[in-house]
Structure formats: C-alpha cells, structure tokens
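Comment thread on ticket #2218

A.B. wrote:
> Attaching the input chain for the structure job we discussed in standup.
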Amino acid sequence: MNTSDAPLIRVKDLSVRYCRGLFRSLLYAAGDCARELVARGAPGPDLRAGEFWALRDVTFELRRGECLGVIGANGAGKSTLLKVLNGLFKPDAGTITTRGRVGALIELGTGFSPVLSGRENVFINGAVLGIPRSEIVRRFERIVDFSEIGDAIDAPVRTYSTGMALRLAFAIALEMDLDVLLLDEILAVGDVGFRAKCHRAMEERLADSAVIFVSHSMPQVARLCTRLLVLDKGRIAYHGPDIPAGIECYYNHFPFEGDDRARAAGWSLESIALAPHPPQEITCHAPRLSPGDGLRIDATVRFERAFRRLALSVLFSDRETRGVAQCNPSGALRAEDLVADRVSFQIAVPRLPLNPGSYAVSLVAMDEETGRFFGTLQHAAQFRIDGDRFGFTPVQLDGSLALDGQNATC
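C.D. wrote:
> Ran it. Output below, let me know if you need it in another format.
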C-alpha cells in the first residue's frame, strides 16, 4: 500500500466502560491495576455492577484529506472517543493505530498554564509537540496575527477571556503542522468573524492533514465534514460519506413535537391541522409530504386584544430552529370576522421547495392599523417532507444546466 494512502488513524472494535459510582469506580480501578501487575490481563467482556459502555465496538479509519464529523446526543460517547484517541483514557477493548503527529483541542485551554503568558504557552505547546524552538520563532508572528490578541500575548493566560484563549489555542494548532487534529466543540465559542476564519483555515489545511470534528452544530458539520460518524449510547448508528443522511440520522434521535396550544401576548391557538395542498384529508398529526408539495394550514385562534385588521405570516423553521422560509398570505383578519373572540382561517402555500426533513410552523400576527405586534405562536405544528434526496441546506431551488446549447433541468 502507498504510505500516502494509509490511514492516519485506524480504530478497531474500540470499547470503553465507565462506572457511575465514585467509590465503586475507585475499587474497580485498584483491582484492574493489581490485575495488570500480576499479568492477568484486563477484566472480562461482561459489565460489573454499576458499569455501562461509554463506547462499544467502534470501528473506523481516517485518511489524510478527510474530516470526520462525530455527532450524537449528549452522553453518546463523542468526547470519550476523542479523549481515548488523544491518549487521555485507556480503552477496555479494541485497538487504535495512529500515524504522524496528533494534536487535540478537546477542552478550552487544554495544555495552557494559566500563570504563564500566552507567549510562553506557545513555546511550551510547540515543545510538547516536538517542534524545534527556531521553527516556533519563525511561526510566532503568524500565530499572534491569527489569534488577534495583540499585546495580550505577554499577559498571563488567566487574564484572557474565553474567546481570547480559544483563538490562541486554535492558532497554535493550525501552525504546528499536525497530521491529525481532534476538535471538540471548539468552534462553538467565538464571534462570527473568527468562526468564518477558522472554517477557511481548516479547509485550506485539510489537504495535508485529517480532522476529527465533534459538534452539535449541523451547519458547521455540513460545511466542514467529508464523512460522518453518528454515535448513539456508545454505538455507531451511522458511518459513511453521505453527510445529509448522517445528519438526518442524528435528528431522528430527538422528538420534534408541535405545540398545538401555543400562546402569545395578544392571542392564543385553540386548534391547528395541516394537510397537503391541494386539499386532501385533514389530519391533526404531522402530515408527510413529498418534495415540492404544497401545504394547507387550518387553524382556530382566540384573541385577547382588540384590533381592526390583522396581517398574518407563517414562519417555517428546521430542526436547528433556524428560520428557513416565510409566507405572507394576501388578505387579513378583520374584527368583524370574530365570533366570541375566535376566528377560524385557512392558509394555503402552493409549493414548499424544501429538502426532506422535519419542519415546524409558527404563526405571526400584526395589527395593520396600529403596527402593534401580537406575538408569535411558536412551533404550533410540525410536518415532514419524505424523500431520499437530502440536501446540505433546507431549501432546494429549481434550476437548469446548459449542455452543448441544450437545457437540462435540475
């Protein structure tokens, strides 16, 4: 095999067990150490009282030029995996083979001495990674420029803000020519400008290295990762290069229910039902649509404030609670339409150009006469669009491609 194509990390049947009780954990640890001293090997494959598998039979490979996203619910085993790969934890079973220099940003400020200056920590981190002092001196100004901390480089790290420590740690990691970089939620901190710069820097360096990226931000995962590993209670739920499918697998672990009794400052929802449009059978449950289908919303609301003409809007949001689309239907609700402070209405959206996935519907009302905002009935209902053509973004637009003077529709 060409060594340039050989995996930088090869993980085979990796398993790690934890114990929930402190006293019992210490007791097991002492017993395991004694077992190793007398060469009796590791404990058996069965869990002891109070133990559980934090990781179980995890297998994957990572090559140069790849960014492996590791996602899953809290407690799925993501951070444990990175700590084992970085040598902080010893696995209970399985093997890990690494090639090249591996660095990690697992916890903010890991490897920093708070009483030393940023400058001193740069040189210490470089020395730990085996970088000659002359090479660190040559790269020092680039590290400071990227971190944007200026004269604070000579102040003790304990005086840094969270963002300053993050920027310095990330700048050091980028400049040390690591073969493998382990990142655990490190891009969750920092302003939008710094995150954009980090994304560009990681994309530029990915051709010469490999990255394992743990995150709960699916937009960041979709942008950076070439493959995904979805963990569920320590086991692999998905592993492959189909990023949208992996993200959908992650989303499927979280119930997404509408609040059909939502309230706002000036009005409240009494009932809501969704159905495909053109009208079909109305259902109180989340309807399942096909890509490009329309949607009909039937709702009854009660008003607690007086108004004359009320404009309605429909907001659509995805599983990240990001707004992805808005509909401002023509027409308005009038005060004379009310019956006992209630009114029922229908809103039809002819076509939803959304990729497969689950979405929430919110209703917004504003008095056209006074401009007074009645508030938003958040996540009043939900629906799902079925299909196997997942996308990197929620919205899927129509388009055409010209080939040799002919038009091919997407």
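A.B. wrote:
> Thanks. Noting for the ticket: Residues 267-385 form a domain with the Coagulation Factor XIII; Chain A, domain 1 fold (CATH 2.70.50.60).
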